[in-house]
Each structure stands twice: as C-alpha cells, then as structure tokens.
Amino acid sequence: MTLDDQQIVPEDRQDAPEPSMLRVRNVSKTFGETRVLREVSLDIAAGETRGLVGENGSGKSTLIKVLAGFYQPDPGAEISVRGRQVAGSLTPLGARDLGLTFVHQDLALVPSLTVSDNMTVNALAASRSWRVSPKAEARSTQKLLDEYGLGIDARAAVSSLTQLERAMVAIVRAIDGMRESAAHGQAGLLVLDEPTVFLPKADRGLLFDLARRHTSDGGGVLFVSHDLEECLEVTDSITVLRDGRLRGTVPSKGTDRADIIRLMVGKELNLSSRRPTPPAHLPVVRATGLNGTSVRDVSLELGPGEIVGITGLLGSGFDELPYLISGAGQGATGRLAVGEREFDLASMRPVDGIRAGIALVPGDRARQGSVASLSVLDNLSVQALPTARAWFGIDWRRLRTVGQRLIATYDVRPQKLDVAYGTLSGGNQQKVLLARWMQTNPGVILLHEPTQGVDIGAREQIFDIVRAGADAGAAVLCASADQEQLSLLCDRVLVMRDGAIVAELLGGDISKAAIARESLGSARQSVPPASRRAATS
Amino acid sequence: MTDTATKRTPSLRPTGARVGAWSEKYGLLVIWAVLIVVFSVIEGPIFLSLANWQSILGSQSVLLLLAVGLLIPMTAGDYDLSVTGVLGISSMTVALLNVQFGWPIWAAVAAAILASLLAGALNGAIVVFFGVDPFISTLGTGSVFLGVIYWMSNSNTITGVSPELSAWVVGGKILGIPPAFYYGVGACAIVWFVLKYTVFGRQMLFVGRNKPLSRLAGMAVGRLRFLGLVISAFAAGIAGVVYAGTTGSADPTSSQSFLLPTFAAVFLGATVIQNQRFNAWGTLIAVYFLVTGITGLQLLGADSFVQPLFFGGALVVSVALSQFSRRRDAAGSERLGHG
Amino acid sequence: MTDTATKRTPSLRPTGARVGAWSEKYGLLVIWAVLIVVFSVIEGPIFLSLANWQSILGSQSVLLLLAVGLLIPMTAGDYDLSVTGVLGISSMTVALLNVQFGWPIWAAVAAAILASLLAGALNGAIVVFFGVDPFISTLGTGSVFLGVIYWMSNSNTITGVSPELSAWVVGGKILGIPPAFYYGVGACAIVWFVLKYTVFGRQMLFVGRNKPLSRLAGMAVGRLRFLGLVISAFAAGIAGVVYAGTTGSADPTSSQSFLLPTFAAVFLGATVIQNQRFNAWGTLIAVYFLVTGITGLQLLGADSFVQPLFFGGALVVSVALSQFSRRRDAAGSERLGHG
Amino acid sequence: GCSSPSHSSSSPSASSQSSAAGVAAAQAALTKAEAVPSYTAPGPAFDAAKAAGKHVFYIPQTSNVPFVVAVQKALSKVAATAHVDLTVWPTTGKSTEWVQGIETAISQKADAIILGASPDALAPQLAEAAAAKIPVIVLHQYDTSMTLPANVKAFAFAPFVPAAKLLADYAVASTKGSADVLVITSNELKPSPPMAAAVSAELTSTCPKCTDTEVNVAAADWGSKMQSSVQAALLRDPKINVVIPLFDSSSQFVTAAITAAGKADSVSIATFNNTPFVLDLMQKGSPVKMDVGESINWIGYAAMDQVLRVLSGVKPLTNESAPLRVFTTKNVSVVGSPSDNEKGYSTSYVNGYLKLWGLTSK
Ligand SMILES: Nc1ncnc2c1ncn2[C@@H]1O[C@H](COP(=O)(O)OP(=O)(O)OP(=O)(O)O)[C@@H](O)[C@H]1O
Ligand SMILES: Nc1ncnc2c1ncn2[C@@H]1O[C@H](COP(=O)(O)OP(=O)(O)OP(=O)(O)O)[C@@H](O)[C@H]1O
Ligand SMILES: [Mg+2]
Ligand SMILES: [Mg+2]
C-alpha cells in the first residue's frame, strides 16, 4: 500500500469538547461469512456536511442501514447521537427518535400506493395516535409538494411518476420528517444515500439548499455519492471507505478528486480521455417519427461505431428513447430501420429488436434487468440460452466456461458464478448486465443510465466496455442525465426538451456546461433531423 | 414537467378515464344490478319478494365473517388457508362444551373464541418465528386443525347446542333479517374502518406491499403479521360460533367447504370500490353478488351443475372486466398477490 | 476485497456452512429416513416388506403427476388451482365415452387429453388476454370445470371402464410396482429436464422471477405463461386417465380431494434438492415422504384423526426446518425492492 | 316387506278412494316398521370354527365417520369370538388409500377383504384380488335391487329401497295424502339415485295427488350450500310440507333452512340412517319427525355372517341384511338420551347369529 497516510485527519476525536452530532465507534457487520464493515468509527459535528464515498460494495449503504436500525451491527459497536448513547440495539424507530432521517438508496417507495400514502409511511410506526386520516394527509402532502413547487398530485400512484419525481417525493418526505424532529427540539442528522443519481444537475440545487438550511439550523448531513466533484463541492469533509474499512476523513477544501480516488481505490486511476470521433458511415439505425408517452415526433440516426448521448431535463422524454427504439415502448408509434430491417413501432416487440441485434440495458436494474435471487451465471445466461444448445438440452458446461471468461473479462467481483446476483454491489451488477448483452455482439447498444450509482473505478471499466462495443462496430445510444458521463463517453450528444430533440452537440462542443445550457433551453432553435445528420458527416 | 404533462393531455382523456375509474369501482355493482333485473324479469314476484331477500341476506353471514377477517392478513400479503379449520374448531368447541360438558353457552362461546385465538397465534408463530411462507404453513395447520376437530368430536356430529345461541344468531329478526347478517355487516364496517382509518391498517398495507421498506420505516413487521393471522382466526372463531348457532350443531367436515368461496369473495371484492386493494365493502358486495346469482338459479330450479358454472364464470368474468377497465387507463404496475 | 474475505474465514466456518447447505438440500431425505427407521422399529417386517414398499410406491401416481405438472406454471409464478378440476374432467371423459358411448379406450383417452388441453388453453387465455391473476382465474375455472363434470356425469359415478386401460395403468407390474409409478417417475424426469436443460424451462424460471426483465430479454411472456397452464392441464389430463385406469371408474367429486395435497407436495418439494426453487425430484420426494408417514400410521391402525395431524405437522415442520437452515447462513435474503 | 299393492288410478272417481287406500297402506307399512324388528335366521346354520385363525382385512370408506367406527367395533367383537384375525386399514375417504389397502391386503395374503369403500372405484383391484383368490365381501353399499359389481364374493346388503319407500310412506301418511315433497339427493353417492327413484315411485303409487321435486346437493357442499338450496326451494314452492334429505347427516342444515324460512311448524323432515345426533334432534323437538335406519351393530353381525360363511367355505347368502326400524316422535324415546340407536333393537340377533355359527358354547 503506497498510500500517504499523513493526509488523513485522525478520526478518533474522543477529546472533542462538546458531544458530536453523531459518534460511531467500532461498527462491524458480517453477512454470513463476509465481513462488510470492519471496525468503522466516525464523528460528525453539528452543522457539518459530511461526504461518504467509496467503491461499490465498500459498505456505505450497509453503514447507513446500520444507522437506520435495519441491520444490527456485530457486537462491540457503540453509537451515540448528541451524546445520547444508544442502549441495546438500534431500531428504526429508535433511530428516528434520535433525530436520524434517511433517504435510502432505493428510495423506499411503494409504487402501487399514492404519493400521500408513501409520504406517511415513516410517521406510521411512530404515530402516537391510533388512527389515520387519509383526506387530511392528502391535503397536507399536497401542500408540502406545492411548497417545493413540484407539481405532483398527492393522490397519484407513485407508479405513475417518473424516476425523478419519485426521488423528489422521497427527498421531500425525508425533509418533512426532519422538520418534524426539529420541531421536537433540535435538528438531527440527515442521511442521504446517493440521492442525486436520479436528479439532473439542475435539480440538485434544491436539495443542497435544503441540506444547507438544515446544517445552519445546527443539524448534520451525511451524504453518499459517487459524484466526487459534487461531493467536494457541497460537503465540509469527506470520509472514505474501502473494503468496509475506514480509509480516513479529509477536509473538502484543498482536497482534489485524485486524492480521494487514491484513498478509495488504493492506487492511481487513469481516467481516460475522450476517444477520437469515429469516421462517418451509413447509419445503422434510422428512426423516424417516434411517439411515446413523453416523446413526440422524434427522428434520429445512429452510425456504426458511434456513441451518441441523449439527455435533457426531468420529463423531457430522453429516458424513454432507448425503450422506444428497442421495441419495449407500449403504445408507441413510429418507424424504425435497423440495418436492412424495417419496423413499425406499434407492432414491434422487444424480441424483434433483439433479433435485429439491438441490446437494451435498462436503467432499473432490479426491476427490469435482473433477478436478484438467481445466480450470476443464471443472469448471464438469459441471452445466451438459445445459442448454448447441445443435443437437445442446454449445455451448462459451455455456459459456465463462457460465463467464467465473461466475468473475468469484465472484472466482476467476486469472480464467482454461483453467488446470488443480488449480493453483488451495484457496479458489479451493472457489469454483469453489460456482459450479458455484450456476449451477443449487438449491432445496436441502447443504454439507460449505464453508470447510475456506480463507483468511479467501475465507471471507467463500464466506459471501456461500451467503447469496446462501439469499436467493434456497434451503434451506441446512451440516455443519461449525467452530463459529465456524456461529455466523457459520447461522440455526439442530443438534447431533448418537451419531448423533442432541440440540440445536437458534436465532438469538441460537448461539455457539461453546453449540455446544461441546452437542456435548460436558452432559446436555441430546434434543429431539423436531416440537417443534424448532415452536420455529422 | 408537470406542466408539459397537463399540456399534453387531450381534452377527452379525463372523461374516458373517469368512466374507466368509475366502472372499475362500481362495475360489479352494475353487473349485480343487471343480474337482479334479469332474475326479476324471469321469476317475477318470487325473486323480488321480501322473503327471498331476507333469505339471501341472512344466509351468508358465516362466509362474510370468514372473508372479512381474511382481508386483514391478505392485506399484509399473508394467505391464511386455515380459516376454515379454525371455523370448524370454534363451532365444534361451542357444541362440545355446551352439549357434552354442559357448560353454559357463554362460557362455551368464550372458550371457542379463545381456542381460535390460540390457533391464530400458532399460525402467526410459525410464520414469524420460523419464517415459513403462510400459504404453506396455513395449508399445514389447516390440516392439523382438521385432525384436532376429528379428535375432539370423535368424528361425530354434535347437535343440541343451546337455543339461546340460535336466538342470538338467527332469532329476533330485525326487518325480517336475522342478527347474523348484522354481525357480518358490522364486521365489514370494523374492518373497513381499521384498514382505512387506523395506523394498524395502514401499516398492514405497507407490510403487504413491501416488507423491507416497512421494517426500515420502523414497523414491527413480524408483530403485525402475527396480529393479522390472529385477527383472521378471531373472525373465523366468531364465524364458527355463528355457524354453530345457525345450525344448532357442529359437524367435523362441513367447514372445509367454505374455503374456496371465501377466497373467491376476497379476491372478487378486491375488484370493487378500491380496485386492486382488498377491501371490506367490496367483499360484502362480492358475497351477495354471488349468492344472488346462485339463489336466482335455485329459484329457477336450475340443475345443480349450473351453480358451480355460474360461480366460477361470474368470478372470472367480473375480475376480467375490472382488470380490463383498469388496463385501459393505467399502464398496470404491480398488482395484488403473492411473493 | 475477495482476497481479504477468504483470508479471514475461520477454518470451521465453511464446514458449518456446508452442513447448512447440505441439510438444506437433503434435510427432508433425512427426516424421511428417520421416519422409516421409526416405523420399522415399531412395526418390524411388515413395514419393511417389499410388498409394503411396492404398495407405497404404486399408490401415489395420480398425485405425483398432478404435482409435477403443476411445477411448470408455478415456476412461472402462476398458481393453477384448477388442476383437480381438469383431473376430474379427464377421468370423467374417459369413463363416459368408453362406457356410455362405447368408444374404444384409446379414443376415449385421446378425447380426455384433448379436453384437458382445451381446459388448459381456457386458463391460459384468461390469464394472458384478460390479465386476470391466475390464482383467482383458476379458482373460477376450477369451479366451472366442476360444474362441467356434474353436467357430463349427471352427478353419477360411472363404472366399467375398459380393463385394457387398467392393464396399462396398474396391471403388468415391473418389479412388483404398477406401471403408473413409472409414468410418474418418467414425468418427473421430463419436468426436471425441461426446467433445467431447456430454453423453455429457463425462460419459465425468469418469467416467474421477473416479468419485465423477461419481456425486455425478448421472451414471449404471455405465450410462455399460456403454455405453462396448458402443460399443467395436460399433466392433469394424464393424471385423470391414470385415475380412471386405477379405479376403473370416474366419479364427479373425489378429484377435488387432491387439491391441497398437490400444493403441499409442490411447496414441500421446493425445500429439497434445490431449496427455494420448485423442482421435480424434490416434489417426488415430498410425495413419497408424506405417503410413507401415512402408510406407516395406517399399518399401525392409528386413529384416523392422526392422519391429518401427521400430514399438516410434517408439512409445517419440514418446511420450517429447511427455512431455518437457510436462515442460519444467509442473513435474510429480503432486500428493499422497488416494488 | 313393505311393498304396497300396486294400483292404478284410471278413473277420476276412483282417485279419492284410492288415495285414501294409499294413505292407509302407507300408514300400515310405517306402523309395521315402527315396531322392534325381530331376528330370523338369514340362512342355514354352519360351523364357523373353520374360519378360526384366518386373516381378514377391513377397508372402510372413511374412518372419520361414527358409522364406520361402530361397524368396526361389531366386526372386531365377532372376529374375536370366532378367532378371526381382523386388520383395519384406516382411510380418509380417498380412493388412493383404498387402492393401497387392497394392495396391502393382497400382499399380506389376507384370507378375505371386507370392503366398506366403493367397489365402483376399485374394479381393477377387485380383479386383482379375485386373481389372488382373495374373496371380497362388500359391506352396506348395495340394495338387492341394484346392479352388483363383479369380483365380489358376497354382500352384506343395505335396504336402501325399502327405506326410501318408508320415507315416502311417511310423507303420505303424515300429510294425509297431500304431500308436497322436496327430496334432497346427493347423486354422487351410489344409493342416492335408486333411493330418489324409489321415493318418487312410492309416492306415485300410493298418493296420486302428491308431488315431489328433487334438489341435488353434493355431500361436500352440505355445509355451504344446503341451507340456501333448501330455502330457495321452499320459496319457489311454498306448498312443500315434507323434506326428505336422503341421508340424515345433513339434517341440521335442512333444519336450519326450515327454521330460517319460518316454517318449522308446517314442514317436517323424514330421513334415513338413524344417526344418533338426528335421533337427538328428534327427541329435542325439531322439524325432524321421522328417521329410518338399521342397527349398526346388527349390520356388523350380518357382514360377519357373510365373512364367516366365505371363510368356512359355505355358500354366501344373497339377501343378507339388517332390518330397518322407523323412529318417529312416538317411539323415539326408546333410544334414550343421548340417543343410542342400538337401544331400539332387541339383542336377540346376537345370540341368534352365534347360534347360527355354532359359536355359543365357546
Ligand atoms: N444482506 C447482505 N448479505 C450479504 N452481503 C451483503 C448484504 N448487503 C450487502 N452485502 C455486501 O456488502 C458489501 C457492501 O455493500 P454496501 O451496500 O454497503 O456497499 P456500498 O458501499 O453501498 O456500495 P455502492 O457504492 O454500490 O452503493 C457488498 O459487497 C455487498 O455485496
Ligand atoms: N439483503 C441482501 N441480501 C443480499 N444482498 C444484498 C442485500 N442487501 C443488499 N445487498 C446487496 O449488496 C449490495 C449493496 O447494497 P446496496 O443496496 O446498497 O446497493 P449498492 O451496492 O449501494 O448499489 P449501487 O452500486 O447502486 O450504489 C447490492 O449489490 C445489493 O444487491
Ligand atoms: Mg450503497
Ligand atoms: Mg450504491
């Protein structure tokens, strides 16, 4: 380990004059045989915003779930909040009583219930009354939502909301819960586990304003993110976890990204630069007149070897495009040409897309991408089954060999085929998902938030996988709200507004700032699709 | 974004959606009404007679009590296949203690309720402490309860339950309808209130939809599921008392025949009033919808094979219709059910 | 990270885990063995006699065929509560056509299988085209099928099915065990192969675990579910033929009694060999485990109430044990889903 | 012996006369059956000592009914007296259990099988037993008038049709020839169709003005459907004054329906089987006014008579059965409280049979 340990601020501040907001000592957590957290100690002062970073699977969410009382830590742990030592084991209710409020990574919403039902879920268990009043709840929820100008109907089912709206609901719920506890005396600790993955940059301001207001009231914030720049920007100090062990805490001022990466990964990471723009060819994909739930009359073309980004604001419809082009959009219309084949979207099914060489890597890994309870091999095999026939059954030996090679190539950790997919960390889940599709040598790769919640090291690996796919001649479409990712990965970026493509950025023009400007719509004229393609060539 | 959404809504949409939502909520009521009209036309005065409606309303209290109690664990996602076993234990306990051991009827009833609560606690304990899926554990305990009933009763039918109980259950009619009907309606009202207006009911709903989330929100998931199974057993216990009162007797086997109708009523009920959610009034409507059809057929003197045909057909068709209207306006997310 | 994990593993741990995994896979086999030893000690030679084992193995083919067919839709997440209805339709068709209409037995059998396939197609169509949850739609169609059976048979038992069929089913014993047993085992082998080694079987598994994923992965989810329900009806149809052959007759009601044992066998089977997954050999073991216990009790001449007690108790205990061993080594597999 | 003389109501003028005659005939048959039945030897005497040491297997329809338990008791008692080894194979009413029982009996090389379960569902197994030369004696499932199954050596008959006739006679007599009868059948049970036919035929022959309707409720649905079916039938035809559930184990549901319809005073129930709880109902005052049936113990002796004949190599009888007795509110008190229908019979048949078998001295 070549790490410069001097940089690290000692975590043990036992002689701190006043009790810190949160004091954690010696927290370990073991699942079965794997130790996920090892003797983690942590102090957060009142008024402090603390970042928590680490690779996928380094234990951040686990630590947070320990704080939430969801997991019991191994014996020997001590947790105290504002000097109040937690006696016995921490329960979810106890945590809330202590003033800890959470936005969990998976948002913790029930899609089939209404926004206002979901809003009340945390209050339920602690409720002192025995009854609830749905009407009053709906009213107060609506008031709250309006207060933040979200324009969400409190009586709508969460399933009818977009991912972004769902994130906003979860955040507003947490903030409301926090206010509640503030009303009981003192501001507590707000814990945000990757709250921004669903939010485009522009909408994150609201969240950070709220967090800042909270800290200035004397509360504390613990903020988990894989976006190191954002983390450096909004936090006072950053704690780094690696392999479940505390690597140290550094002040955000005067630290740069590279330092943190070194702490996280334990080595220097070569962040790749943009690859050269591929030469223009006849398009592989030609879509005309696409219409979906939020997409209106969009046409676009993708060339072989080209990585095209598509982005926009919440509700602009950019995140629907990959699904439309794969044939998974329901009630969609439009025409699609993939190579020689022509499709009418109204009658196209995903299987048609797959036969035409389209691979879709959905953004919602858990719901649309994988089966958590089955093994990595099972999940890898989904797309390979028809090709792995021997005699008249599936040749599992061959699948296994291929799978072993795939997870080695894609650096999936742990490199075991038989572990349950669900126990992998997010980054590794994503790599498995990509591996599953890449083994089919797709001609068209459609990605939706391919690095959502993925750590910086894994992100580079995923970029490499995508680039390798493009280099092999595939056309890539990457829908993402992550402007940095787009600027690093894409040869061309399309920006959508109100369901239509309004701008196209090429090569050197692609930058976070430019994307943000176009997304917000600083009065640029929409570019007709024909001229766009022409501009590329 | 919301702006755009509102902008894009064609003016016709809301009306269409409203009709859809309405038919989704009250579709079964309409089918019921049609059924009543059809039978009235065919059979005229007999079907519309007070006596017929008294008989329709008065005859299904046991089923209604069972179904309404079952709603609670079902809301928490737990199938309870042992309710009919508990029904049998309860009615047998009443009859045995009252007739063979000479206990006063109130004591026998109290013991029956207690026995039912114990049975529910056993179900709850197996589910909560051993983590066995309730579908399979209650399948098992249902069989155990059946064994217990055979053992208790020595496989005999026991008659001669004190007429006092019958008086409370089927005597002293109000508007010509026996008290048991009002007990069933009362139970519906309670369950409706509990599910809609109490913290407990709301918690059960969350537990049923997402257990880890509920745990994270601080709900005592295990305790809630335990309670749910105890409550369904409690309701089955009351149903058992009503059953014993209705027939003045208890026999070891007949309680089993309520199992499928109970589940049918619960699922069919989940297509009315609050679509996709188990709800009490929907269940009540489902029960009386089914019995109206069957009674109508009986009055027609239809062959006995027509009854199961109607029962199954009505179930499938009304659920399909409600599903259909739901599909039209919402891109269905998850739905009721298991795992 | 993987390195450190392996390094830190205490030497005893893996053994413990391996025992856990082993008991998870073969726990029920051990309980079965214990049961056999206990009965052998109590009853000595009779229980251990070849004849007894021939009778144990030969007696459960109908149940086994039903359960093994049910595995397919269950793997795709679809409960099929109508299998016993199809069983009844099939056996009644054989008996009716053969006895009352004088069809040759092969034609009657073919018609029965055809009728079963139609019944399965009806189930599939309701589930796929109307989006009705199979638990409720097959509850309904099960009732419809019962009505059809009553109608066909006029509620009568029909006897005198051609002995040819019986010869194929229970005559011509191999190793003293009737052919029906080998049909059951053959069906197990086929289902095992299908679920493990065919694309269809794997697709069913994914459909059962995650429907949106399956759709995006290009599977024809609707068609697969449809096929699953047709297959379970097909198996139930064969079971019906075997049933008619075993008894040389068909009656309108007795098929219903297979419903709960079938589900019990399927769920219990999912605790063996491949824990948490419906599997054919596990189901076979579950069936013969339960029948061993019951036969032992019958040979003992135990009171009849002991049978349901044993059945339910064995079910709950063995599932609880398998659950327990699973829990020990993996900290609760639930995770916060998005739904 | 309760067949009434057949008559035709050819001319309208004769009809009222014949109706009165029918009522009288019905009443006479009923009165005769209300008396304590007496034992007459069913057939020639024989020496049952040859049966000693033989092994008999008893497979009941389902062990979960008191009837079976009582029969089993009688069988065991006689078996012990005759030194016959009796094995009981308990079942819960599933055909697979019966099949397994016969297989087990064959594999244990039993000398005879007493079958309480339906031979209809066991034809292949009966053939197998016949091939193994194991005689099968079927217990209490057939009336002599019914078509009999093959591969059965002997029957202990049940007087279903005479009982049904008595039920109709009661309806005629109790309503003085103006019975409007509701017959509740369970057609999946073997005796149900011939019994229903017999009720109908007896009504037609003794009472031209009487009418009858049938409602079929499967035994499995008695708990959940019987009450509403009966209530609907009463609504449909308010003139119904006698309800005949063919099997008395469903009486409590019929009673509940009649009570719920408010017709407890005008509608009476006549039924079959003499199950103790129904006699209880009758004694305590309920719409059940008549129950006809047999002594279960007697059935056991009758069955054992056939078994011993078969085991001893004597030709079995063709009309072996226990006699019927009718209980009405008039004579039901003889069964005591709680009801024990064995009390309604003189025990002379016990000694009678023992003497017939030559077992009295031992
Ligand atoms: N319930 C569990 N059982 C077994 N292993 C688990 C469980 N929960 C988490 N893990 C493992 O613990 C490790 C840490 O997971 P954790 O969720 O804390 O990571 P993380 O730091 O939040 O990662 P990410 O950045 O991807 O969110 C991972 O390797 C994961 O596989
Ligand atoms: N109960 C559990 N059992 C098994 N695995 C679990 C469990 N809970 C979490 N995990 C796994 O542990 C890993 C970390 O958990 P978590 O839910 O925090 O995701 P994550 O790693 O943080 O994802 P991301 O990469 O998006 O940040 C995930 O891969 C998850 O699948
Ligand atoms: Mg995490
Ligand atoms: Mg994460």
UniProtKB/TrEMBL annotation, chain A:
Superkingdom of the organism of origin: Bacteria
Any one GO molecular-function label of the UniProt entry: ATP binding
Keywords associated with the record: ATP-binding, Nucleotide-binding, Repeat, Transport
ABC transporter domain residues: 22-523
Name of the featured protein: Sugar ABC transporter ATP-binding protein
UniProtKB/TrEMBL annotation, chains B, C:
Ranges that cross the membrane: 26-47, 53-72, 79-99, 105-128, 135-153, 180-199, 220-244, 256-273, 280-299, 305-325
UniProt feature coiled coil, ranges: none
Keyword Transmembrane helix: yes
Record InterPro entries: ABC_transp_permease
Signal peptide: none
Alphabetical keyword list: Cell membrane, Membrane, Transmembrane, Transmembrane helix
Name of one Pfam family that matches: BPD_transp_2
Annotated localization: Cell membrane
Keyword Cytoplasm set for record: no
UniProt membrane topology term: Multi-pass membrane protein
Highest taxon listed in the record's lineage: Bacteria
Classification via PANTHER family: ABC TRANSPORTER PERMEASE PROTEIN YPHD-RELATED-RELATED, RIBOSE IMPORT PERMEASE PROTEIN RBSC
Protein name (record): ABC transporter permease
Organism annotation: Lysinimonas soli
